[in-house]
Amino acid sequence: MTDSDSLVYSVDDVAKILCCEPATVATHLSTGYLPGLKFGRSWVIPVGAFVQRINELAMSQAAEQRAIRGRPHVANPIAPKTKSRRRVPPVLPSL
Q1: Can you say how many angstroms the Cα of residue 87 is from the centroid of all Cα atoms in its chain?
Q2: Which pLDDT score, from 0 to 100, does residue 74 have?
Q3: Which DSSP string corresponds to 34-68?
Q4: Which residues of 5-25 are buried (b: 16+ CB within 10 A; e: fewer)?
Q5: Fewer Cβ neighbours under 10 Å: the N or C end of the chain?
Q6: Do 25 and 34 touch, CB atoms closer than 8 A?
Q7: Is 26 helix (H, G, I), strand (E, B) or coil?
Q8: Domain residue spans in the chain?
Q9: pLDDT tens digits for 5-15?
């Protein structure tokens, strides 16, 4: 069986796929954010479960983006930009 025919990924394999550190993958596995099985001190990630989870995350993120784009664009959604007021120069006393 070649590497591409493997039914499971290692933490290093997933880290390479996701372009992140193995420690990040291990954290996501231990919290349940990514699917995996722990055997002793090592994690095993079933390819099918991993691909399914990535698809779920992609669909969820796409739905969130569509919902945001449905609203008027706001630079900072927490504090909407207010109209800027021009500063009026002070009136100078006559001489």
Answers
A1: 41
A2: 54
A3: S--EEETTEEEEEHHHHHHHHHHHHHHHHHHHHHH
A4: eeeebbbebbbeeeeeeeeeb
A5: C
A6: yes
A7: helix
A8: 9-70
A9: 679 999 999 99
CA 13 to CA 43: how far, in whole Å?
A: 11
**Pairwise CA distance, residues 51 & 79, whole Å:** 37
Residue 49, pLDDT above cutoff 90:
yes
Tell which phi-psi region holds residue 19, choosing left (phi > 0), alpha (psi between -120 and 50) or beta.
left
Encode burial over 35-72: b for 16+ CB neighbours within 10 A, e otherwise. Answer: ebeeeeeebebeeeebeebeeeeeeeeeeeeeeeeeee
Q: Which two tokens stand for residue 6?
A: 């493997």
Which 8-state DSSP code applies to residue 76?
Answer: S
Under 8 Å between Cβ of 75 and 81 = yes
Asked if 45 contacts 29 with a C-beta cutoff of 8 angstroms, the reply is: yes
